[in-house]
Design a protein that fits this description.
mainly alpha; Arc Repressor Mutant, subunit A; 2 domains; two-stranded antiparallel ribbon
Length: 124
Amino acid sequence: MDRFDSMRLFVRVVERRSFVTAATDLGVPRSTATEVIKQLEARLGVQLLRRTTRAVAPTLEGEAYHEHCVAILGQIEEAEGGFRGAQPQGLLRVDAHPLLTRTFLLPHLRAFLDRYTRRSHSLT
């Protein structure tokens, strides 16, 4: 797992308060989830989670790291989300030879306008 996947796993463990549930949510084996969190704690040099036989809870350092992870992962989702379903917008100017316009552009112009224009439009 890369750092972002480790962060996602850590956030899920904190939110679900369970390694088993977090691992199931993310589709990874429980042993992998446990190992990833151990490696994360070793890399950071702090204990992020208090583990008992019945519960998992973040330490103070874990709570601070959780807040940072949520913010970072949110920014990544926002950055990547800007490209999903993006549609053209703004003014489109086309300069083409009349033969190319009649042959290639005009036959598809109505479908283009229907797909990308939000308000009424006219072909003038």
